[in-house]
From TrEMBL:
Provenance organism: Cytobacillus stercorigallinarum
Gene giving rise to this polypeptide: yhbY
Name recorded for this polypeptide: Ribosome assembly RNA-binding protein YhbY
Stored InterPro entries: RNA-binding_CRM, RNA-binding_domain, RNA-binding_YhbY, YhbY-like_sf
Keywords assigned by UniProt, alphabetized: RNA-binding
Classification via NCBIfam families: RNA_bind_YhbY
SMART domains named among the record's database cross-references: CRS1_YhbY
Protein's UniProt keywords contain RNA-binding: yes
Record flagged with keyword Phosphoprotein: no
Gene3D superfamilies: YhbY-like
Cited Pfam families: CRS1_YhbY (PF01985)
Domain CRM: 1-96
Length: 96
């Protein structure tokens, strides 16, 4: 579990990132969860964008993604989700 201080740090790190995944009309599926999990292993921190035509609400999408990838939900802001998961082989982010 992340502390408030760690979440603040991760939010500032994620600020300049561009979203590399988009959740649209199809919602969250197994293939997407698998791809996001792989991307988290490589990058540790990433943004997911929720498109206007997504059927599920953003909190549901955030919960499905964080549970499916076993990642920490750092932030849901607007239609952006920020996820963090410490990498096994590729540690880049040093948490405070």
């Amino acid at each position: 579990m992340l502390t408030g201080k760690q979440k603040r740090y991760l939010r500032s790190e994620a600020h300049h990132l561009n979203p590399i995944f988009q959740v649209g009309k199809g919602g969250v599926n197994d293939n997407m969860v698998k791809q996001i999990a792989e991307a988290l292993e490589a990058r540790e921190l990433l943004k997911v964008s929720i498109l206007q035509n997504c059927d599920e609400d953003r909190d549901t999408v955030a919960e499905l993604l964080s549970k499916g990838t076993k990642a920490e939900l750092v932030q849901v802001i607007g239609n952006m989700i920020v996820l963090y998961k410490q990498s096994k082989e590729n540690k880049q982010i040093k948490l405070p």
